[in-house]
Request: fold
Amino acid sequence: MAVEEEGLRVFQSVKIKIGEAKNLPTYPGPNKMRDCYCTVNLDREEVFRTKIVEKSLCPFYGEDFYCEIPRSFRHLSFYIFDRDVFRRDSIIGKVAIQKEDLPKYHNRDTWFQLQHVDADSEVQGKVHLELRLSEVITDTGVVCHKLAARILECQGLPIVNGQCDPYATVTLAGPYRSEAKKTKVKKKTNNPQFDEVFYFEVTRPCSYNRKSHFDFEEEDVDKLEIRVDLWNASNLKFGDEFLGELRVPLNVLRQSSSYEAWYFLQPRDNGSKSLKPGDLGSLRLNVVYTEDHVFSSDYYSPLRDLLLRSADVEPVSASAAHVLGEVCREKQEAAIPLVRLFLHYGRVVPFISAIANAEVRRTQDPNTIFRGNSLTSKCIDETMKLAGMHYLHMTLKPAIEEICQSHKSCEIDPVKLKDGESLENNMENLRQYVDRIFNVITKSGVSCPTVMCDIFFSLREAAAKRFQDDLDVRYTAVSSFIFLRFFAPAILSPNLFQLTPHHTDPQTSRTLTLISKTIQTLGSLSKSKSASFKESYMAAFYEFFNEQKYADAVKNFLDLISSSGRRDPKSIEQPILLKEGFMIKRAQGRKRFGMKNFKKRWFCLTNHEFTYQKSKGDQPLCSIPIENILAVEKLEEESFKMKNMFQVIQPERALYIQANNCVEAKAWIDILTKVSQCNQKRLTVYHPSAYLNGHWLCCRASSDTAPGCSPCTGGLPANIQLDIDGDRETERIYSLFNSYMSKLEKMQEACGSRSVYDGPEQEEYSTFIIDDPQETYKTLKQVITGVGALEQEHAQYRRDKFKKTKYGSQEHPIGDKSFQSYIRQQSETSTHSI
Reply:
């Protein structure tokens, strides 16, 4: 979800690795240990939670989290909680990284000291305030000055314990006075519209003398300030919760009698002494925050066209896409946006075929084919992740869930056997698991996505042509990807492929490691399989699988997924699970009588239907066929005074649903929109608010069948080739080229050197693959020209934004540190330009 900014879209995303915590404070009891988990928060809104690690003061989490950020935020925060069975979980400490500081820690493992959590420091949101100073002459001729403080509205206040009933106190404070007034409480909203005015007497001189009056006013006003405190009205005995404050000195009225601005709420300094930084322990994190500024499509045409021609360039090493792989520090950096761009335009198979053929021609030993971390390998990995995720889930998820739930012991290392365990029983348990997973994989060939099969076909043909004497190379070229880089890693770390919500426990993790090793070896078709294992117990266990039927099953599977005349998977009618989880829904009114209350339900979306039930595994209470979904849109918060709500619109009614947080709401809206995008009866207009008390809240129409009053938002396309923003991927490729500009210029020098000199090559140029120096130089020149043109457009946009932006506006409230640092950068840029 992008933020629109005058012809430019801004996308925010974050990828986080939560490593481990260490040296947490001991529990004040005889056990000393804690059961801890970690949450990821945008400001104070929780968007992710790790598993609970029990009985540890140094818990290891090892969990990854990625999300598109659908709103503005000030802090990315991490909280360590201690689970309490009988009371509310207690917070041990937090790490809060300001948005403007995220680049400092980009893609670096960093230990952060946990900080003490204080209710007075936990603030978010902004306030719209207006001040006006006016002269008032009383009936007796005395002049006094009155201050009108108007609280218009607040936005983005935190939801505390599931609710937000805010009110504000407005105080005129000085050295010798303090006068406070209070707004009304606004129920069930974190975006309250107050629009209340409070009057304060600022000065009251004894006699009217204009000169002496102004002398007195100036002296007095400098010492006064307006303080606005936001509170959440609580019914608990502990009192109302502090939400934040702002302080405005009245000398802002010195230039003008009126003043109006937006302010970020700030924490309150109550003078409390926090613990020493080291007292609470530390947390290891790796954070990658990305902000893409994307222009309209025509800006990217030159660079995009140059990239899309890569598959047709001879040799392919002289193409723009291959050049990107050469200059990036890691091939993965280049592979991710390249694959997404080529998928979007339906060019991924020709491109990967071209670079794979080039790599095969450079390979001397068939046993090392596609074994390195080349651009080809990384591009195929990324394609399998994008196109093959549903296939992976459909194939492996039931078996992985059974292994996690049954919890059978499968340890076959005699040294690690526990007391009472039988090596023979454990071997039999493991053999049954391996057999089941091997069978579901080798029988899944008909479900393999077409784009993967087309790539495997090109790999098979290239390998067979290059190594005609090796009859197995046509299989190993494919198995090195489908087994070694696709199925085996998913079995080893199912949480990284969304097969499990979190890391598995140590015993299950050990079982999955043994299964993954065995499946990897079965798929490799190596001639001396027992010798493939370093451990003698694995070699002994593998004797179970030395029968020819296993090798035949692997070859039949590889033949099927790498043949050009295979069955189209689109004809397969087996439902594919797309997303599931708990949400809160409002009764749809299918019964004539009864209250339309809100209930927590387990929702499940497949490519056939959208259902909900009381709990996971229960019979569905309601099933909505995908063809009956006419639109999926956000629901305005004012409808039910509830945040993160959306609506699934059907022919007769709408289903109103509340997600757990803004990230989950966006994910559900996106996937529901995607699967229903091709429905013939999709709506073009909808009602952004609910139908309550006999009318639509948005347009006041009384008929519940009245046509919508707002246009539906543009949805996501329904197929993998188009479910990608091509302009955003081209922008990312531009950013990579721009950041590696020095290496592009070095590569140009290398092309010149190879064209002119036939002697030994300089060492600094030897890392580049340059098969045709002249063609490569021509491509490099076009890339540098295209990147330079886009850089000029970005620079011009930044200059224009700098001129137009007002500090204190709704977009950039006073207290916005990221905007202050942006102002400094632009000032320095302007100085250098002059």
Remarks:
- The longest strand covers residues 9-22.
